[in-house]
Each structure stands twice: as structure tokens, then as C-alpha cells.
Write a structure and sequence with these properties.
Layout lengths: L6 E5 L3 H13 L3 E5 L2 H11 L3 E4 L2 E2 L2 E2 H10 L8 E5 L4 H9 L4 E4 L4 H14 L3
Parallel strand pairs: 1-2, 1-3, 3-6, 6-7
Antiparallel strand pairs: 4-5
Helix pairs in contact: 2-3
Length: about 130
């Protein structure tokens, strides 16, 4: 594996969305990992130590906000930048996610170029 290749964990239960996002990330030069539910997402974050996490908030086996909270409270993942990518169109929910320390928040459908630019900017800002 290329030492410069950044690892991004996609926590997304919609297989089509996850595959498309993974393909876009790989074509942009990133390594992409996919977790399909909340529990797997937290486990992968701890084991794989990704450089960034893209997190859906509507997941089986756990609410997205609780996943976000678990990631932020864990010594293994508290430092990992998180981008929320969700279909939830609720300003209160967005505010709750932002309060828990997400780096960016995107609603589906999303603009792929905007998301890739956000990933690049966040990784650069975090010095990753």
C-alpha cells in the first residue's frame, strides 16, 4: 500500500451509496473501507484507524448521533475527522451533529466534487 494513500472509512447502510462513494474516493486516490452498520462502524474506526470517517446518521444497529458520540469519546477515534453524509433534512438534528464535533455536514443527494474538496481540505487542515 502506498504510504501516502489516506484511508477513509465509509459508514453507510445503503450498499449502492457506499459502493459509489467508495469508487469515487478510490478514483481520487484514497483507500476506502466500508462499514454497513453502527456497530461495525465503531469497530472499524478503532481497528483500522482511518484518516477520516464519512458517517451516515440513519444506520441499523444504532443511531448515528450515538455512533458519533462513541467515536468522539473513544481515545482510539476522538481525533479522527468526521464528515456526516445523511438523508436527514432536519436543522435540529444537523445542529446536534455539529455540536458533537463533526468537521462537515452534507445532505443527500450530495455534490461529489464538493464532498471530495471538503475531504481534501479537512485532511490538509488536520495535518493528515
Amino acid at each position: 500500500m502506498d504510504a501516502e494513500k489516506k484511508k477513509i472509512l465509509i459508514v453507510e447502510d445503503d450498499a449502492d451509496v457506499a459502493r459509489l462513494l467508495s469508487a469515487r474516493l478510490k478514483s481520487a486516490g484514497y483507500e476506502a473501507l466500508i462499514a454497513s452498520d453502527a456497530i461495525q462502524g465503531v469497530q472499524f474506526a478503532h481497528r483500522q484507524k482511518p484518516d477520516l470517517i464519512i458517517l451516515d446518521l440513519m444506520l441499523p444497529a444504532g443511531d448515528g448521533l450515538s455512533v458519533l458520540e462513541n467515536l468522539r469519546l473513544s481515545a482510539y477515534s476522538s481525533h479522527i475527522p468526521i464528515i456526516v453524509l445523511t438523508g436527514i433534512k432536519d436543522e435540529d438534528y444537523k445542529n446536534k451533529a455539529m455540536e458533537k464535533g463533526v468537521n462537515a455536514y452534507f445532505q443527500k443527494p450530495y455534490d461529489a466534487d464538493e464532498l471530495l474538496n471538503a475531504i481534501k481540505d479537512i485532511l490538509k487542515a488536520e495535518g493528515v
